[in-house]
Structure formats: C-alpha cells, structure tokens
Amino acid sequence: MTARADREIAYQAFFEQHHADLARLAYLITGDASAATDLAADALVEIWRHWRRVTSADNPVGYARGVLANLARGWLRRERRERLGLLRSRFRNEEFHDPDVPAVLDVRAALGRLPVRRRECVVLRYAFDVPEKEVAAILGISVGAVKSHTSRGADQLAAMLRRPDPVPALEWR
Amino acid sequence: MTAGTGRDRNEAMNTPRLGHDRLRTDLRDLAEAYRPDRASIATRAAAGRAAAARRDRMRPIAAATAVLGVVAAIAVGVNAGNDPDAPPIVAAAPTTAIGGPTAAEPTAEEPTETKPTGESIPAKPAFMTCKGSVDKNSVPTWTQDTVTVRTSKRTTDIAVTITVPRTAGTRDAGKFSTVPNSDLAMTVEQTADALLYHFQLAEGAHLPAGEWVFAAQFEHRAGRDRQRDSYVVGARADSGAGTWNGDFSGT
Q1: What share of chain A is helix, strand, coil (3-state, %, to 5)?
Q2: Is residue A51 pLDDT above 60, yes or no?
Q3: Which of A136, A155, A131, A158 is nearest to A146 (CA)?
Q4: How close does chain B come to A11, measured CA to CA in Å?
Q5: pLDDT over 80 at B33, yes or no
Q6: Is residue B37 part of a domain?
Q7: To the nearest whole angstrom, how far is the Cα of A124 from the nearest Cα of chain B?
Q8: How far is A51 from chain B (nearest CA, A)?
C-alpha cells in the first residue's frame, strides 16, 4: 500500500517536472500543438507503466524523451500517410499561440521540412542541449549518426532560413 | 551570443560541434513560445493510465509467450552501423512494453485491480480459435503475417500481439485489421530484438461473434526465416477469458 503511494507521489513529481518539457519536445518534432499535448500525455502513461524501469534508468529524463520521440515518430508516420494526396501542411499557422514573432513561424515551418531524424537531432541538440551521447541513446542510433544528422540538419535549416551564422561581416554594413 | 567560429570547430572531433548560434536561439524561442496545456496533458494521461491498467490485465498472457529478453537501458546506445544516413528506426531503449508490468510484478502496477495480475487465464478457450498464416501476396523482401481469429461469442476485450523477431533489414511496413479503426488501437513497438504489432480493442468496445483479421506487414532482406514469428491472442467473453498462441508456419 505504501509502496503504491510512494510510487504515485514520485510519478506525480515526475509529471510536474517534465510534462512541459516533453510537450515542447513533441511540439518541435511534430509542429502540431494538439498532437504535442497528446504525445506528452501518452509518453507519461508509458512512463507510469514502466515506472521501475524509468527510475532505475541511468537517465530517467532521457528515457522519457526516448519514449516521446518514438511516439512522435509514429504520429508523423500516420500523419504522412493520411496526408498523401491531401497536401495539407502540418505546420499550420492557426495553431500558433504567439502572435508577435513571424520569425518564429518561419523557424517552425523550416523545421517541419527537415527529414525526421535530422529534425530530432537538431531539436534535441540545439533546443534542449542534450549531449550527443544521450541523443544517440534516446533515438537508438549511433553517436556518429547523431553528429551527421545534427550537422546536416542545422546546415539545412540555416540555409532554409537564409540566415548565415552571425559573422563579422555584419559590422561592415 | 558568441559566434562559434567555424574554423575552431574542427579542432575537437569528439566534442560537440555546434555552430549556428542563431539557430539555437530561434529553436529555444520556438520551444518557449509553445505553452504546454497542463490540464489537457493530465486529463489524457489519467485516462491513458486507466486504459493501460485494464490492458495490463491481458499482459501476463503476452508476457508468457514473448520470445524476447528485451533490455531497456537508455545508457546503452544502439549502434546503428557505420552509415550515418541509414535511418534505422530502432528506438530500442524506451519502448519495451512487453517486458513491462507482468505477472511477476506486485499489484502496485495495477491500482484498480484487486486480483493478482497473475490470474490464470486458460489457453484455447471454447469461444475462440486462431490461425496464423503468411499472406499469399508476400514476396521475398516483404511479408504479411496474418492472424485470423474466429469467435463464437461476443468478445468484450481482445488483445493481439504479433512478434516479428528482427532479422536483416526488418522494418515495419504497415498493419491493419478488419476490426473498425474506431474500436481498435494498433501500435508497432520497436525493440532491440523485434517488431511487436499490438492490436487492442478499445475500452468499452466489443466484437460480435465472427471472423476478425489482424495483420502485420514488414520489409526484410530476402531469404528471411519466419519460423520465429509468433502471435498471441488474449480475449474475454462474457463466459470467461482465454488465450491462444501460435506461429505462421501455415495450417
């Protein structure tokens, strides 16, 4: 009885600490606000079901992110299938809450055009600062693959945004 | 923001090379601009937990026949081979549900269940027969494993898992069922060792007596040995519950 209560308390703490982070990760990977809500919730259900494994993992947050990334990939696959022949952008403007930053919209749209693996790597590395080794574990790919996807993804994204790295050249204008 | 000068990056092959500082800012802004909806997440998670608890009652069935000694260690990265562009969809670590709460776990895994989860469920119940077959449209590099379930009674719960052990080039290529989509959750779980196709009848749904098909489709290298492909079906009718397991070796 107490064990169950303890587990519940620990799980609730985990929920409070990480649900927002997981939802944001889902949002960056899928570009879809409502899917992000669902995926974060579904990931948290999986985490609850495998609570022992989560708590005994070296990196419970990494474990959670891995679950989420996996669910998000499944969602994207289903979306893609549904969208075939229906040219509907997944990255729709009306879902976006923040009205004042058109630049951000561009980023989201560009992100949505990256191949999924690259997107996952770029998001985890850049937006969440996850070390390469951890990204590799989360996605179940090699560190070499993470490096390659990240660097290609970042280059591709930067090119789409047509914004070079900030360079001294700016000062010449 | 400090501009990570491109030249410096090359020095450290083993440390992360992150240029594009602007990109980092942009992505963080994007993440921050999104306001997670805590209430919706909590509501859906609670519903999911309830459904999972119910589903896990079926799980001892699946666990009993699982071919898998699935290991979930996030610390152990899965080496995806040497080609960084090959996208092996192998999320080995996180999703190993079948090794999850099983009969061995105490009832803490199942808050609403008072019976031990190790409840003994009879094999081959009177109300159900199952058959595994390989679809005739299968080709050397693509296979459909089909489970046909025949029931003579209305079933109030049914869970099917088709286990496809990984061999060279194994990749999920689809799944379907003759059970209406609205009444069925279909998921493909990817573990280090296998693809697990799960079909679960929705909470509150039921199936009339009849014939129901559950199919797993996947790609693979030619010459695949399918002898280890297997399935397990757990079902509940008003008269009781039962499981059935088998393979796809034909009749």
Answers
A1: 75, 0, 25
A2: yes
A3: A136
A4: 12
A5: yes
A6: no
A7: 10
A8: 9
Alpha-carbon gap, residue B209 to A17, rounded angstroms: 46
Highest mean pLDDT among A36-50, A95-109, B193-207, B234-248: A36-50
Whether B17 maps to a domain, the answer reads no
- What residues in B contact A64, CB-CB < 8 Å? 94
Calculate what percentage of chain B has a pLDDT beyond 70: 64
Set of chain A residues whose Cβ sits within 8 Å of the Cβ of B41: 19, 23, 37, 40-41, 44
Across the interface, whether the CB atoms of B36 and A19 are under 8 A apart is answered: yes
Secondary structure (3-state) at B71: coil
pLDDT digit string, tens, across residues B67-116: 332 322 222 233 333 333 333 323 333 333 333 333 333 333 333 333 33
Domain of residue B209: give its range.
45-81+88-247
Indicate the pTM of the whole model.
0.48
- What would the mean pLDDT of B22-41 be, rounded to a whole number? 90
Under 8 Å CB pairs connecting chains A and B tally to 223
8 Å CB contact of A127 and B28: yes
Q: Over the Cα atoms of chain A, what is R_g?
A: 18
| Cβ neighbours of residue A171 closer than 8 Å, sequence gap 6 or more | none
State whether B31 and A49 contact (CB < 8 Å).
no
Any domain includes B28 = no
CATH of A2-163, one of 2.30.110.10, 1.20.140.160, 2.30.29.170, 3.40.50.2300: 1.20.140.160
B242: β partners: B235
Chain B contact probe: residue of A6, A15, A37, A54 with most B CBs at under 10 A = A37
User: Residue B103 has what pLDDT?
Assistant: 34
Q: Is the dihedral of CA A136, A139, A140, A142 positive or negative?
A: negative
Q: How many domains does chain B have?
A: 1
Summarised one tens digit per residue, pLDDT across range A66-91 is 999 999 999 998 888 776 645 444 44
Q: What is the pLDDT of residues B152-198, one digit of tens each?
A: 999 988 889 899 998 888 999 999 999 988 888 888 888 778 898 98
Work out the minimum CA distance from A85 to partner chain B, whole angstroms. Answer: 18
Enumerate the β-bridge partners of residue B150: B129, B211
Residue B218 has pLDDT above 50, yes or no: yes
> Given an 8 Å threshold on Cβ–Cβ distance, is B80 in contact with A141?
yes
